[in-house]
């Protein structure tokens, strides 16, 4: 990890130090994904089978995973992992249930009642990546809120063969349909539907460059589907002072670094002593990791910043806007009111990122790549939508009429005015 | 207006009857907007002036509207419209203040505290269209929530000359910077910033095809800005039974139709008698409207649907997903729990759409074009973002450790496990 002293850098150098790697917009990926989406829309299930054979090198007997297969997966799993997944399920459910929006009713003027009501998004699609290791935790992060929101149809796609852990969590979360589908073809199938796969309204979940591009394309098409949020590489920023345990900080930096070679890892500290200790601890801990190769690559583009003060550390973090923000200082809670632009915040020595990745209860689907400035940590709200309601009494309408009439006149909209005056006249005639 | 009997239509004919007009994706608009954005990004203020001269045929002395000009606009306005705008401001503020999210704190397990905290989006840009009539109501709908959310910088762009009503409301809402800028160039200026115009994080507001395309383009660029929601033509669906007043229903249909020739207007009723009365009333009321031409065009593609029952009316509405949904039935509130996929709902005879367009308190920026299935009525949440926080005690971490360790093992992520085991070992060594 490279160490820099913040105040010794020019504005340009500071900006450069916090620059994220460019996400290459590859024309070949765009075109390939366009091709796959077109193939799925015209060819349906047959196209899905052909694409799965081509990309995943397997042809599952059925696109849809049967209940029997799900039950068999559950039977094969050991008790230890089942207990762990159930505990994580309970914590995530507890935190997301608490996010249920109560209906809001406000009388803005006598006789003018305005309400905000929430409805589940009816049909949602969850994408769970395959690859080197199964990600049952991501099934929890998407499946639990869809269940609590009350979405009527929940569809899950993951490239075959789907791990037992994923099928088990899908069952825990009451997911309605599970498909042996990965990549852009899975996204296309959920966005447009096929003979077998149900069309959904919104697609959630992480994926590789093809999945990300497919999500972007279907979300730009009115007939496609909405998506959760834009994607970028995973990242952590740690604020630590001289009180922090260097081993803990190093372990947290490494647990971000092992996610992938493009992971972003930043430590900001007012303590040069801690900076050095952490750098040493990272080297020592790295040696024994099974994914040391990946972590080393990520650390190559990572940085330790020595700041003047904790206040400056906070300013640097707010400017960077990290997905994960770990605060290991003497009084971490004191800093919370100052923290902004972060996906999820981990306060204190006993709150490593991995508890949030798995089981504390918070969601691990978070905005990355600076999107923390405008996007939220995934939550129940993303599986719902808010509608407004208004109901006026005849007195309420009469009281509000002069306001509406004056504004309609100012905007030159006669019919808007008439809809009010016509009613008021009828009321006056009745009197 | 064309009248159809729902049960006499085939599935395909039913789908066709509710089909929205295709939004033409014009390659020439895409290219023109790309050109404008590029010009603004490279040319800054000079480019803005040149583009304003080209498209708006005026060259304001300054891009930014001065405080003196705003004060002068206020002084020129009559008391009646100022009183109306203030009343609308109060009602909208009242309803949006009630949407403030309380911080949420949940102990998911003993010693594992999870929180949801809300922060304002720091810098927001509001686009207010110019054209035939000024839209001070849209300034209220965007300006009030940005003020209540506590956004640190609020920028407003509107094509010159900007109406006094717009400047007055901008002052009411405490908007920080107002610019004489319209079209794609205004969106580009807010998304990327220039010497004079502040860059913002998120852009809100309606506009023509060029503005909509510019919003789409900057929202697809990571260096650009987020946007409020996808755009489409405005629309209303009215559910009315034989108890409804045909004049009221006709007035509501017309106040939607006068918005623009592409406005969508739908009446669904179980009563053929009412259907006929409304059709007649529409013809009669249309004659006296100043925007009768526009309304007539919109009515050309509008439809009256005769359904079997109110239940079927609700099903048709939920399937269509209207921006505005007006319910004029004997017991409108009874239907509310069944209603889904609507932007804003107007219950009963005394709640015409124009009260929500202006002054009841609800927001008039609503999802259109079927986006009601996944998008929400604009509200305070859109000017904020949610971050999660977790803080574990040492006991909390020890209790959660076996869960995290088992899941990290299942996902093959050593460093995730180490970040927990290393802490637990230190705790055990201390004992």
Walkthrough of the structure:
Two copies of one chain form a homodimer. By secondary structure, the first copy, chain A, is α/β, with parallel strands linked by helices. Chain A has three domains: 2-23 and 232-361, 3-Layer(aba) Sandwich (Rossmann fold), CATH 3.40.50; 27-105 and 120-227, Nitrogenase molybdenum iron protein domain (Rossmann fold, 3-Layer(aba) Sandwich), CATH 3.40.50; 393-430, Single alpha-helices involved in coiled-coils or other helix-helix interfaces, CATH 1.20.5. Helices cover 47% and strands 17% of the residues of chain A. The first copy, chain A, has helices at residues 11-17, 27-56, 67-76, 79-97, 136-149, 164-172, 183-192, 209-219, 246-257, 272-286, 292-300, 310-320, 332-335, 353-358, 394-411, 414-430, and strands at 2-5, 104-109, 112-120, 123-127, 153-158, 177-180, 202-204, 226-227, 235-240, 264-269, 303-306, 324-328, 344-347, 384-392. A six-stranded parallel sheet of chain A has the order 1-11-10-9-12-13, with helices on both faces. In chain A, strands 6-5-4-7-8 form a five-stranded parallel sheet, sandwiched between helices. A three-stranded antiparallel sheet of chain A has the order 2-3-14. The first copy, chain A, is globular. The model of chain A has no long low-confidence stretch (mean pLDDT 95). Chains A and B meet through helix 4, strand 2, strand 3, helix 9 and strand 13 of A and helix 4, strand 2, strand 3, helix 9 and strand 13 of B.
